[in-house]
């Protein structure tokens, strides 16, 4: 994680409008702070790192457990989120349904998958399935490979979690993985 060049800007901007923010990295950093994950650094381990990030809310030793009323957003250190818009969008959704949202790409996964670059949101039920079923069964959720978002998309499909449309009423995307022009 690029704490001084990227994550610090997340911390100083949109993260201030979140109910709960957890910064996670392969290295624990008390002063930032980050939660250290037991994952080897490197591109081949991105899927494993993302899966550990999403598992963190289910850790029974974690004092911040059960903080997820609507679900959880996974965002990288170069993602910008307008929290008010995200909350408004999610307010019409049922967190008990097995769904997730993000910028849809179609190759590799039948229902498509949400691009990791623009971040994605898992409903509370999607997180429950992932935490209780997915990580315990590598045939459902593989943690190996460089395409973290494709792995997660296949995992969600295997857990019968639907990638739901996140387009607005003008058919515009709400999650963006490309640089603005």
UniProtKB/TrEMBL annotation:
This is N-acetylgalactosaminide beta-1,3-galactosyltransferase. Gene3D superfamilies: 3.90.550.50. GO terms for molecular function: glycoprotein-N-acetylgalactosamine 3-beta-galactosyltransferase activity; nucleotide binding. The keyword Transferase applies. InterPro entries: C1GALT1/C1GALT1_chp1, Fringe-like_glycosylTrfase. Belongs to the glycosyltransferase 31 family. Beta3-Gal-T subfamily. It comes from Lymnaea stagnalis (Great pond snail). It is found in: Membrane. It is a single-pass type II membrane protein. Pfam families: Fringe. Pathway: Protein modification; protein glycosylation. Residues 10-167 form the Fringe-like glycosyltransferase domain. Its main location: membrane. GO terms for cellular component: membrane. It comes from the Eukaryota. It is an enzyme of class 2 (transferase). Keywords: Glycosyltransferase, Membrane, Nucleotide-binding, Signal-anchor, Transferase, Transmembrane, Transmembrane helix. Its EC number is 2.4.1.122.
